[in-house]
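Entry:
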Amino acid sequence: MGKSAENIAVLGLQWGDEGKGKLVDLLSANFSNVVRFQGGNNAGHTVVINGESIALHQVPSGAHHPGCFLVIGSGSVLDFDIFHEELESLRKRGIDILDRLLLSDKAHIILPYHIAIDKWREGGSIRIGTTGRGIGPTYEAKAARHGVRVGDIKTSGLLEKIVTLYKETSLILGNSASLPTPETVSEKLLELASPLLNCIGNVHEYLYDAWRQGKSILFEGAQATMLDIDHGTYPFVTSSNCTIGGLFTGTGLPPKALNKVIGVAKAYTTRVGAGPFPSELTDSICEHIRDVGHEYGTTTGRPRRCGWFDAAALRYACRVNGVDALGIMKLDVLDGLERIGIVTAYKSKDGKLLHTPPSSIQDWEGMEPVVDYFDGWSAPTKGAKSWSSLPSQAQKYLKGIEKTVETPIAYVSTGPDREEGLFV
């Protein structure tokens, strides 16, 4: 198969962990470039190749295709410790990406001070349920205009910027906080970044030239719509725009550079951490989904909350992102269930029917899901590679998703391996 003639974005539509990594890995062989445009190492994309599970946190999921150039955009935040570990892990598998990697000089760096603030907050009385990786405080420093950017590594002003963050963190946490000195942080950062100096550059210029020359680009989103800082279940969200707008601010490309949007969702719903989750199940079905689907966080290992497919949230996500087609992942996890639900709307505590997620966190209180049930299937979908090989009940369920979400399905995953699934 030749290279794609279109630029495509793959975005999550739920609360993250939808299986975007697998779909990006499948598609990236047909693209010249794969771009990660926002988020940090709080996101984990898992790719399964020949039965081997490979987790990536900051490296774009096209890393396993030698013909793919890998780009990390300015909307991302980078932890050089974790990035170094990922590069070493890939090298052990015989994959060296330094000659096909570009890091935006405008991306921000996660420092130990950001991590310390994140953990301090999560240990307090108001917990959001973050990964504790310093992502939020890094974006805060960016918005406050005193963050440290990747390009600063190449300048003489690096230490001065780190000192500013050190002083502020000391004021927040108190003098008793055990913080590394700015000199220690600077020295380690320069050491870790040393092999990457030739990879740091102007992402906007590179991508603009690639677009104008007709070189295809695959954009890989991290997290998902319902975790978006503006459009998600605020305040239980991430700290960046993981919806379509974040693609343009995180790369500098104009909207007309994008041809299609593929939205990714599981055949059910999960979320990690605190926050509203109206389709959540707390019974044996939840345990079945969690055990069969291995629903534990790629980054933290935390057990995920599991529930029925939330079509109301997904329809909203499709509208926000202008989704052209859906990728439905992990259909096989539902094999063997007697009946399967789709949440079509919400009913508020005063009896009002809502067909879109509310904005205020208070409005979620007492919210009940409105569920349509479908017959389950006894024949397995595991490993199915064609629509006709799916049980008729599974086909009806997928058609039910299309109808309620008002968006066609383009791909269905029927197992973790890259070979298990079908394009519709």
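The mean pLDDT is 93.
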